[in-house]
Amino acid sequence: MPTTHVVVVGPDGRMTVDAAAAELVGEQPGRYRIAPGPPGVIVLERLGDDDERRARVITMGEILNQSSVLELVGMIANNGWRGELSIVDGDINRRLMLDQGALKSAFSNAANERLGEVMVALGAITPDQLARCVLSVSPERRFGEIAIEQGYVDRHMLFEMLQAQAQRIFQGALLMTCGHYTFTVPAEDGDAPAMTVHMPVQGLLMESVQRIDEMAMFRERIPGNDVKPRMTSTAARITLDPSLRPLAMLCKGDQTLVELGRALRLDEFEVTKQVMQLLQIGYVEIMEDHPLDRDSVEAILRQLNDVLREIRETVERHGGRKDMLWTLKAWLQDSEISRFFGEDTRVDGDIPVDATLARLTALDLERPLEELHRASHELVSFAMFAASPNLPREAERNLSKWVNQRIARLRL
């Protein structure tokens, strides 16, 4: 699970942080001022003698959909900006150094995007050679230098592998559909990358667009990287392409796509594409590892209640709340949705967690959270249907746009 960093601001302005957040902010001690920001966002800007030499934030924000990073990188390249784009989702952090429309270097803490893992995946070194090099890595001795010293690769091959790693990180960044980004102009005396490449961004974008389109199609059947593929009862009768056999043999329902990709040194796109091929021929089925507990139910209902509350408040502003509630109540009487939320469900944004958890437990479903997720989408869809006749066209259009953005992020 990704690390959660929580800062609590009390009504008196006092701030408290959890252990994870304390560790994070402790890495950057100093004095800060609160910079201007939109409601719901607090931006801290460092103060001090080195103020003029610190990194400057050009743009920052939230990744909302599959094209967010693509459009952002395209804008940076088209304007010829120089700086570092940092993209973070949970514990995964990718950084791209961009300069005059070229990718100069890339960093990632994702396991399958490390240089050694890329080199093994491309056949430049063996897993045994990787293990030997890792034992000798230190702050003074980098992995690539050790691989050259050991005679596993020459400098020309190492440079090709650095390019391949940068491309894998770049493509991984463009596939991110949620998280946050920051583009900064680095400080003049900031640390420079140990080795640089020069890869035109436009060429990388053209190669990545097809991946993004294909990944969107894959996500219709494979909702995320935490699913667990499992061989079907008919798998033994299916003849596999040799390229799919290494992955197929690991699909036992006990490893997520992330774990499978790490085991086979495949990136997110490659492992998802192969699982999709196995799904299409009926060799595997998808298992999801979402335990039924209060935290999981609360996470879904928190997002659901926010959406329902906005629908209700928008309709109230236009005087149509009574008609909407009547339509919704009539629908619920004939709908299975009441199994999850109760027959007296209202769009007041206060669906209770404990009562919903009790209903899910009593239903004894095979995939209760997946069913709750589906029911939440259906409830929002009908709430919008019931709200539409009570809203002016422009208000309905604006609400629909907002709801669609939020519902796309309503995930397990």
Description:
The structure is a single chain. The chain is an alpha+beta fold and 412 residues long. The chain has four domains: 1-48, no CATH class; 56-216, no CATH class; 219-288, Arc Repressor Mutant, subunit A; 294-408, no CATH class. The protein is 47% helix and 16% strand. It contains 16 helices and twelve strands. The chain has helices at residues 19-26, 68-78, 115-121, 127-136, 143-149, 155-174, 201-218, 245-248, 257-264, 268-280, 294-317, 321-333, 338-341, 353-363, 368-387, 393-408, and strands at residues 7-9, 15-17, 31-35, 43-47, 56-63, 82-89, 92-99, 102-108, 179-185, 199-200, 227-231, 284-288. The strands form four sheets. The chain has a six-stranded antiparallel beta sheet with strand order 5-9-6-7-8-10. The chain has a two-stranded antiparallel sheet with strand order 1-2. A hairpin with a 2-residue loop joins β6 (82-89) and β7. The longest helix is centred in the last third of the chain and has 24 residues, at 294-317. The model has no long low-confidence stretch (mean pLDDT 85).
What labels describe this entry?
Arc Repressor Mutant, subunit A, 6-stranded antiparallel sheet, globular, 412 residues
What is the mean predicted local confidence, pLDDT?
A: 85
SSE ordering = EEHEEEHEEEHHHHEEHEHHHEHHHHHH
Instruction: Report how far the terminal alpha carbons are from each other.
Output: 12 Å
How many beta-strand elements? 12
Strand count, sense and barrel status of the largest sheet are: 6 strands, antiparallel
Strand order of the largest sheet: 5-9-6-7-8-10
Which of globular, elongated, flat, extended, rod-shaped describes the shape? globular
Radius of gyration: 25 Å
Helix content: 40-55%
Q: Label the structural class.
A: alpha+beta
Number of helices: 16
Uncertain stretches: none
Give the count of structural domains. Answer: 4
Roughly what fraction of the amino acids lie in strands?
15-25%
